[in-house]
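Thread amino acids onto this structure.
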C-alpha cells in the first residue's frame, strides 16, 4: 500500500478506533511525546550523542506502549499489523499526519464529547 493509500485508509477508519475518552486523552499527550522523542532521536544521531538518541528512542517506545494500552479500552481494536514495514509506516504516518489532522479538523474534540 502506498503512503497516500495508507493515509486515506487510516483517515477513513480513524474515528472508529478512537472513541474511548481515556484513549483520546492519552493520545493528546502521548502523540506529541512520540514526536518530541522522534526529533530527539534524530538530533542525537545527527550530533553523535548516544544519550540523546537513547532518550529519544525511550520516549518513542514508552509513548507507543502507552498508546497500545489506551487502545485496549476501545470498543474496536486496531487492525493488526501485517508486517514490520506495515507497522513502521502506520505508526509514523499516524503520529506525524493522521492524529494531528484528527485534532486540527476537530475530530478529536467531537470524539471526546461523544459526537
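Threaded sequence (115 positions):
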Amino acid at each position: 500500500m502506498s503512503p497516500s493509500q495508507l493515509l486515506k485508509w487510516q483517515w477513513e477508519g480513524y474515528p472508529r478506533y478512537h472513541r474511548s475518552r481515556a484513549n483520546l486523552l492519552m493520545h493528546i499527550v502521548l502523540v506529541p511525546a512520540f514526536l518530541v522523542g522522534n526529533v530527539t532521536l534524530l538530533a542525537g544521531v545527527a550530533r553523535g550523542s548516544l544519550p540523546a538518541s537513547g532518550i529519544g528512542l525511550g520516549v518513542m517506545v514508552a509513548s507507543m506502549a502507552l498508546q497500545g494500552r489506551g487502545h485496549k479500552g476501545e470498543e474496536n481494536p486496531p487492525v493488526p499489523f501485517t508486517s514490520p514495514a506495515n507497522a513502521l509506516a502506520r505508526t509514523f504516518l499516524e503520529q506525524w499526519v493522521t492524529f494531528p489532522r484528527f485534532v486540527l479538523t476537530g475530530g478529536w474534540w467531537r470524539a471526546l464529547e461523544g459526537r
